[in-house]
Amino acid sequence: MAVTTRNRGEEWLARGGLRPTRQRLALAHLLVGDGHDRHVTAESLYAASNRSGAKVSLATVYNTLRAFCDAGLVQEVVVDGSRSYFDTRLDDHPHFYWEDSAELTDAPKDQLQIAGLPEAPQGTVISRVDVVIRLRRS
C-alpha cells in the first residue's frame, strides 16, 4: 500500500471518528485509497477484499459498512428491498441502476430537475431524496 493511499484511508476514518482497526483500514483502502468514488455492495467489497489478500469476513464487511454509514462516510442507496449499494460520494446526486448488470453509477446531477416535493407529515422533516433511474438496454 502506498503511503498516500494508507494516509487517505486513515484520514477518512478519522473524519468519521472511527478507530483505524486492521479491517477498517483494509476496507477504507479499497473504498477511498485511490481517491475515486465507489458504489459497492457488501458482497462486491468482500470479493475485492479477498482479491487484495485482506482477511475480512463477510459479516465484518456488513458491520463495517454500517459503521461507515453511521459515521457519515458513505451513504446507503437502496435499489430495491433486497439490494443496497454504498456510495462514497456524499453530495446529493442521482444514480443510474443498470438492470442487466446490477451496476449503480452516478447520473448527471446538472440534468436533474425536481419541481416539487410533497409536504412532510407533521412532526417530520425530509432528510434526503434518493433518485435512482433504472435502465435496461433496448
TrEMBL record:
Domain of life (superkingdom): Bacteria
GO molecular function: DNA-binding transcription factor activity; transcription cis-regulatory region binding; zinc ion binding
Swiss-Prot/TrEMBL GO biological process terms: negative regulation of DNA-templated transcription; regulation of secondary metabolite biosynthetic process
Subcellular location: Cytoplasm
Keywords from the named record: Cytoplasm, DNA-binding, Iron, Metal-binding, Repressor, Transcription, Transcription regulation, Zinc
Pfam family, one: FUR
GO cellular component: cytoplasm
Signal peptide location: none
Record's keyword annotation contains Transcription regulation: yes
Subunit structure: Homodimer.
PANTHER family: FERRIC UPTAKE REGULATION PROTEIN (PTHR33202:SF7), ZINC UPTAKE REGULATION PROTEIN (PTHR33202)
Record-stated family: Belongs to the Fur family.
Name of this chain's protein: Ferric uptake regulation protein
Organism per entry: Neotabrizicola shimadae
